[in-house]
């Protein structure tokens, strides 16, 4: 016996591939390593959140409820109303919010709970942007569904082209993943785009799972990125029918290790997801929930985080502009430039020459679903993550510029 055969369809995680790619390369000993490959915020976590966590460690002495503390769900509902004003007063914390242990856990487990292997008459489909967060693909495969990739390239303005999908694919689709702002492109999906996606979901009977974990990292303080929940309200879906959104404290509050996020939306869908989670064993500890309340209740620290990332872009972009075509993204903290050569070879040579690690773009994407001749839309690009301190980001930019000038 070899267990679940779907496990054999999983590709190695990007960072496992990256480690293998760098193996044997020897960077200069005099240069400290700078990692710009992983999207793990390095800013100090908010002290007031850590204080709440420390004060409540005695809460580890009891089993937490899967549904979460009422105070946490109320805090999340209030934050949604502040951040996405169209939802204010519309999110019922008792039926429309569930805590999850970070968006990664929530995204993966939601697909396991929702996919009906026999429901489409043929193998079900989970549609997703390409490039994408690899959890989308793994979740689809292990749920017995087939991933369908929507290339996000310069030709599509880095948007998944929903109208290019054949009707027979939509009829088999049970979940459409969207990511806004996008990883790695930073593209923000407009309210009109999201409303159109909801029209398709209604027409073809599927659910939209919107990964909004970068939603607090937007470019313009006067124009925050919209949510799928706002599109639902704007299109008359008062109970967020067919909508599920995922948010996290990892990027917003520089708390990746807290593993705290939430899922919100259609109460009919969430009731099924809660049933799954009571068996899944995914309840969030009480100290984590109390610390999360403190974080969701405070908006100024998130604004300070946005300002920090803007300062990094302000610093790095002028350094790189003479040697690399780089654009400030609409959201998130990644650069996604074309580098004019094989992305794996570029990454390995950059590490060997400058002790600087980026991520090959091809590791985040797959060949197109309908026409493999389209190729991998991440090939020839790298993802550069501006998560280190400002001074380290600046040093990395100079190293990258020197490397490119030497090619």
Q: How would you summarize the topology of this molecule?
A:
Elements: H1 14-22, E1 34-35, H2 47-55, H3 70-83, E2 97-100, H4 102-114, E3 125-130, H5 134-142, E4 146-151, H6 167-172, E5 173-179, H7 191-204, E6 207-211, H8 228-234, E7 243-248, H9 249-252, E8 261-265, H10 267-280, H11 286-296, H12 300-320, E9 334-335, H13 343-354, E10 356-357, E11 359-360, E12 382-385, H14 390-405
Helix pairs in contact: 2-11, 3-11, 4-5, 4-10, 7-8, 12-14
Task: State the gist of this model.
With 407 residues, the protein is an alpha/beta fold. 39% of the residues lie in helices and 13% in strands.
Describe this structure in words.
The protein is an alpha/beta fold. The chain has two domains: 5-44 and 301-405, Alpha-Beta Complex (Aspartate Aminotransferase, domain 1); 59-298, Aspartate Aminotransferase, domain 2 (3-Layer(aba) Sandwich), CATH 3.40.640.10. Helices cover 39% and strands 13% of the residues. It has helices spanning 14-22, 47-55, 70-83, 102-114, 134-142, 167-172, 191-204, 228-234, 249-252, 267-280, 286-296, 300-320, 343-354, 390-405; strands spanning 34-35, 97-100, 125-130, 146-151, 173-179, 207-211, 243-248, 261-265, 334-335, 356-357, 359-360, 382-385. The strands form three sheets. Strands 2-8-7-6-5-3-4 form a seven-stranded mixed β-sheet, sandwiched between helices. Helix 7 (191-204) links the parallel strand 5 (173-179) and strand 6 (207-211). The chain is globular, with a radius of gyration of 21 Å.
């Amino acid at each position: 016996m070899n267990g679940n055969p779907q496990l054999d369809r999983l590709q190695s995680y990007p960072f496992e591939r990256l480690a293998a790619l760098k193996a044997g390369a020897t960077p200069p000993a005099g240069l400290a390593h700078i990692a710009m490959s992983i999207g793990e915020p390095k800013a100090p976590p908010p002290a007031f959140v850590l204080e709440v966590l420390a004060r409540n460690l005695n809460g580890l002495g009891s089993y937490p409820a899967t549904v979460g503390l009422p105070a946490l769900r109320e805090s999340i509902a209030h934050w949604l109303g502040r951040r996405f004003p169209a939802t204010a007063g519309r999110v019922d914390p008792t039926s429309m919010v569930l805590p999850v242990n970070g968006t990664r856990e929530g995204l993966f487990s939601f697909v396991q709970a929702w996919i009906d292997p026999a429901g489409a008459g043929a193998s079900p489909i989970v549609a997703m942007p390409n490039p994408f967060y690899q959890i989308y693909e793994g979740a689809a495969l292990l749920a017995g569904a087939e991933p369908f990739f929507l290339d996000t390239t310069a030709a599509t303005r880095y948007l998944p082209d929903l109208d290019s999908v054949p009707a027979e694919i939509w009829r088999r689709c049970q979940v459409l993943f969207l990511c806004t702002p996008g990883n790695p492109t930073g593209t923000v999906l407009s309210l009109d785009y999201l409303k159109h996606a909801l029209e398709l979901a209604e027409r073809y009977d599927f659910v939209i799972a919107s990964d909004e974990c970068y939603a607090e990292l937007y470019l313009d303080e006067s124009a925050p990125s919209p949510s799928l929940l706002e599109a639902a309200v704007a299109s008359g879906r008062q109970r967020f029918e067919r909508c599920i959104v995922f948010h996290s404290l990892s990027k917003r509050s520089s708390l990746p290790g807290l593993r705290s996020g939430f899922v919100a939306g259609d109460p009919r869908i969430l009731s099924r997801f809660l049933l799954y989670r009571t068996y899944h064993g995914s309840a969030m500890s009480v100290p984590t929930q109390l610390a999360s309340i403190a974080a969701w209740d405070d908006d100024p620290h998130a604004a300070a985080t946005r300002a920090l990332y803007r300062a990094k872009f302000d610093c790095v972009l002028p350094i790189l502009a003479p040697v690399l075509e780089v654009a400030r993204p609409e959201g998130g903290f990644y650069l996604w430039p074309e580098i004019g050569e094989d992305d794996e070879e570029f990454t390995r040579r950059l590490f060997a020459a400058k002790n600087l690690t980026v991520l090959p773009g091809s590791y985040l994407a797959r060949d197109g679903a309908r026409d493999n001749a389209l190729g991998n839309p991440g090939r020839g690009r790298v993802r550069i993550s501006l998560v280190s301190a400002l001074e380290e980001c600046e040093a990395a930019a100079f190293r990258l510029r020197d490397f490119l000038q030497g090619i």
